[in-house]
Amino acid sequence: MVKENLDASIIIRGFNEAFWLKILFKKLKKQKNVKFEIIYCDNYSDDESIDLAKKYKIKKIFKFKKHIPGKILNNAVKLASGKFVVFLSSHCIPVNDNWLSEHIDFMKKNKSLLASYGRQIPLPGTSTKDKLDLSIIFRDEDIFSIKDPYISNANAIYIRSFLLRNNFSNKASNIEDKIWALKFAKKKNSIAYNSKSAVFHHHGVHQHNQDSKRSINSFNLLERKY
Q1: Which residues, 6 or more positions from 54, have their beta carbon under 8 angstroms from its beta carbon?
Q2: Are 89 and 155 in contact (CB under 8 A)?
């Protein structure tokens, strides 16, 4: 049995993201008023990613070959010691040093929640289409879902004990977070959006500046399953 002696376990996935990890690890070490650990999941990067994780004394590092997001996260959650599990993309940088404490405070204040997700703010180099994505989805007010929840694992927090019993899909190629939300959000106010816990994110939800097949695949997954 894993003891909940930490407030949170931050789980990060990465592949050749050393450019961002240099900034991210440094920023995470400055988070205030919270006891936490970092779990880094690496897709066999050939850059400095692993060296950076070791430099910042991250003790829990594991490598994966095939990128099945839900399966990777499920395995990482088993290694977690925190009461809460926080998922953070390797290229998402917390806006301030209270990002993590704001996530946790929001969950403690709203005790009906199983999970919540935070705001994503574009950077100057973000494409116009991606800026539109982010501005439409991540607004300046908190949102409590009732029938059709949304969640983004680029910046999200879950109750670890519930997540251990209710895993992400081990087969979905992406949008494992949305699939999970639709499956487990069966009661009012179980998933919410926290507008305060913000990160900078250089691309949008559908990554318009990359492969457009992602958005097609995401829609097909939803259409088949729901």
Answers
A1: 61
A2: yes
Question: Which among 162, 160, 155 is positioned nearest to 79, based on CA atoms?
Answer: 160
For residue 222, give Cα distances in angstroms to 51, 124, 138: 38, 31, 21
Q: Full-prediction pTM beyond 0.70?
A: yes
Alpha carbons 206 and 133: distance in angstroms, whole number: 8
Long-range contacts of 166-169 (CB under 8 A, 24+ apart): 167/70, 167/74, 167/77, 168/69, 168/70, 168/71, 168/73, 168/74, 169/70
Contact between 207 and 214 (Cβ < 8 Å): yes
Contact indicator for 19, 48 with CB cutoff of 8 Å: no
Which three-class secondary structure string do you get for 173-197? CCCHHHHHHHHHCCCCCCEEEEEEE
Convert 99-132 to b/e letters by CB count within 10 Å (16 or more is b). bbbbbbbbbeeeeebbbbbbbbbbeeebbeebbe
Strand partners, 8: 36, 84
- The answer to whether 114 touches 190, Cβ cutoff 8 Å, is yes
pLDDT tens, 87-117? 999 999 999 999 999 999 999 999 999 999 9
Band of residue 131 on the pLDDT scale cut at 50, 70, 90: confident
- Amino acid identity of 7? D
> Tokens at residue 195, please?
């507008």
- 176 vs 5, 70, 168, 172, CA distance in Å? 28, 6, 6, 6
